[in-house]
Amino acid sequence: MGRKEIRRSMPLLPISIVMKLTDLSARQIRYYDEQDLISPARTEGNRRLYSLNDVDVLLEIKDLLEQGINIAGIKKIFHMKTVQHHIEDEKNSGKINSDLSDEEVRKLLRQELLQVGRFQKPGMQQREFPRFH
Hints:
Elements: H1 3-8, H2 15-22, H3 26-34, E1 41-42, E2 48-49, H4 52-66, H5 71-93, H6 102-118
Helix pairs in contact: 5-6
């Protein structure tokens, strides 16, 4: 992890600043934390502190919601990104044959997505995020 990434992952920002940066309410931000989409650090007084990476994720969540994707879909997208990074890391470290074609990698990702979908509760396809007014 480079110095820039370390700085971006440092938990420094209180929720009030994150609200201003993302134009999200405290309730929305806490909800995305409860959904394990972000994982802010906690102070000794149990206050959440957010990193710049957390802000990026919140902005991405906001964009995806505006595109009509529900929380279940967002979780799948984030899971697929994690799987893709894991596959790339293993290819780079030599744990996976680096001769895998892009098509083979996509096939692995598709299989992973189907596996995730299999464990999805019925009814999760409906809009899952709460209404914030």
